[in-house]
Amino acid sequence: MTIILANILLAVGMVLDMILGLMILIVIVRAVISWVNPDPFNPVVRFLTASTEPLLKPLRRYIPPVGAGIDLTPLVLLLALYFLRIALAQTLVDLATDMKYKARISMEPGTVIHSATLENMS
Question: Is 71 left (phi over 0), alpha (psi -120 to 50) or beta?
């Protein structure tokens, strides 16, 4: 049962890592595209805006533009996403790996695991 739980945690951690990585990429692309004054009706620009604006808008209430109207909220969002990727996703992956390792070393070499054995282990 421990290995099953570890596999579920591993899957959740890996999917979360992929989602956060994709969001980081989307925020970077939106920030770079914003430097060239893109067409707001372009489907790619609309997708980038629709996918990042719900995360950037709350940050803009607390972080005003700096200097000549430079918006630092994408940078703050990137830092937050990187933090979540390391603190949450990587922690889940490490926890699952540790659980699997401990479950495997607790078994004797050559042991055949039956369903009754799995029930007794949990």
Answer: beta
Q: Which backbone phi and psi does 64 adopt, to 5 degrees?
A: -75, 160
* Beta strand segments in the chain, E: none
pLDDT in tens, 59-78: 999 998 888 888 999 999 99
Buried b (16+ CB within 10 A) or exposed e, 22-59: ebbebbeebbeeeeeeeeeeeeebeebbeebeebbeeb
pTM, full prediction: 0.79
Cα distance between residue 30 and residue 39, in whole Å: 12
The rounded distance, in Å, linking the Cα atoms of 34 and 56 is 14
Residue 66 phi/psi, 5-degree rounding, is -110, 145
92/86 Cα distance (integer angstroms): 10
